[in-house]
User: What shape does this take?
Amino acid sequence: MALDVYITGMGIVSGIGIGVDQTLVSLREQKSGIQPLKHLQTIHDLPCAEVDLSEDQMRELLNISADEVVTRTALMAMLATREALQQARLTMDGTYRVAFIHGTTVGGMEKSEVYYFDFLQNDLHNEFIEAHDCGACTEKIADYFGGFSFVSTPSTACSSAANACILGANLLEAGIVDIAVVGGSECITKFHLNGFKSLMILDSQPCRPFDETRAGLNLGEGAAFIVMESKAHAAKRGVAPLCRLSGYGNACDAYHQTASSPEGQGAFLAMNAALEMSNLQPADVSYINAHGTGTPNNDESEGQAIVRVFGNNPPHVSSTKSLTGHTTSAAGGVEAVISILALQHKFVPANCNFTTQMQSLPFTPVINVLHDIPVQHVLSNSFGFGGNNTSLIFSNVQ
Amino acid sequence: MFQTDVNIPSYDFLTALYRNSQIQYPKFFKMDTLSKLGFLASEFVLKNTEIYGDTPNYSTVQIFANSTSSLETDYEYQQTIGAEYFPSPSVFVYTLPNIVMGEIAIKHKLYGENTFFVQKSFDNSAFFQYIYQVFLQDSVTYALVGWIDYYKHTCEACVMLVEKTNEVCSLPFTKKNSLHLYNL
Amino acid sequence: MDQLIEQLKKEIIEVLNLEDITPADIDSNAPLFGDGLGLDSIDALELIVLMEKNYGIKLQDANQGRDIFKSIQTMAEYISKHRTI
Assistant: This one.
């Protein structure tokens, strides 16, 4: 039976814009948000895509006082959630059973690493100790709006937000909630910047996904959420859906803790599962928003999986991480919004910094934005460490 | 079920358990404590089932959760970027709570769906709903379900294998039964 | 050189959590990766950290490790030539 999951609102903040409108402009004009670090206080000089707002600016936008205990991850999520709720015309007044599912790994860590020695030596910032938890972060965001009947925090690394979408769809299909607000958020921290650096998968230059000379990823940060409900429920509320979630798949690569298998088995299984659920043939997909981190390993693995599913002439493929950076736990949400924008506005975003085709792949990514083309179904990939591979398919409403 | 004197460090307890169980898997020693905990608990649950072994398995899903994510390992990793700056890649790898499912999947070639939640406490109702929903898929036969928490030298692991079957069996999986098992 | 080789074996066992292996078990000329000790890509990265931490040698490119870490012997030779501490 076809999924009855329709998207009625979305919100986003990332290195390419605050809000959906700015994001759309950046995508259409191929404006990357990857640049030298501005907000994070670190000795490292690495290109990243930060959200161009200070914490103070975010607090002001949200009307949150300077002395309230809120972390950067939570602030970004609040901005994105608010935009999504507004577009969906959803007032959190308890009329409906609404789930809030927020994928994150870092949670409030950005504060913990600044106040770490204070925690040990004095009581000046102890109120931030509890804010560290992923779950506490989720609850902070949910409490800001109030009225959520179900709150959950999937934490599966870079597929967290995509898996939040799956849980949301499951809850709707099971009739446990009427509406699900799903997505993820993550801010850049020294913790994971240094961690990725120790794995030697960061590029000291702007990343080049699917390029033969690619050398690694650039970190990004952001938050993005979508509002999901059934077709009938949206109609009852008088809200026109933006698109539908027609299918999803999640599979385990079962190969290595961080590296992907050479043949991309997990990715292959996830994409096939999503196609099967959507009742689509590979040729029906208009655009693949790839995970495409720009690491030698991922792009090879994902590339092979794409060929296995779609053949030597796959649909348009691009990695928008070449614009937004890798927003880790938020990536599934950020790229869901980008996929929906592609559907709505009939364009395919570009894969920046590409010059040389990968010798091992028969296809090249889209290197300049394709405007005014038919986009019916978009497949979005998000793959996390631990071999957690998720594919989502968004489709135009019939 | 295993119980131990509270003064034995978790590291020693889990290593002792590993040796006692005669599992031959040197990669065990590379794992962080949370992954060792989940891995060992799963080994005991999966032994003597058709899932155990390296035949590719597409019909088993993994659903795990805990309350502290990977906090102990996060702390250990943080030490490596402290006063002496030598970030450890092998420790960083485990600063994600879902890696434990990856370890189990690697050993038993489990290619099915897998997800990890961070929750305040063991939520039998949420687990039940998720499993019920996932079992609606024809391709899914088993769910390896786990609550594994490790914080301040306290280990807690409750791992269950739930099978979708029409046969009458000894312990039906219900919200009440799963909570009862957790409380044992 | 022999002393360095013995020391390296001990350090590698500790840093890579090779629990059931003693220095005597490691053949100085045997391959470290692939079949040998069964080391993987993460182990290679830890060896890069070890080189810097214990011997002051900074490797910027992970690919350099492929030749240097072929065996304990090649590692020891590289370290003798380039160590700064």
The first strand of chain A starts at residue 6 and ends at 14.
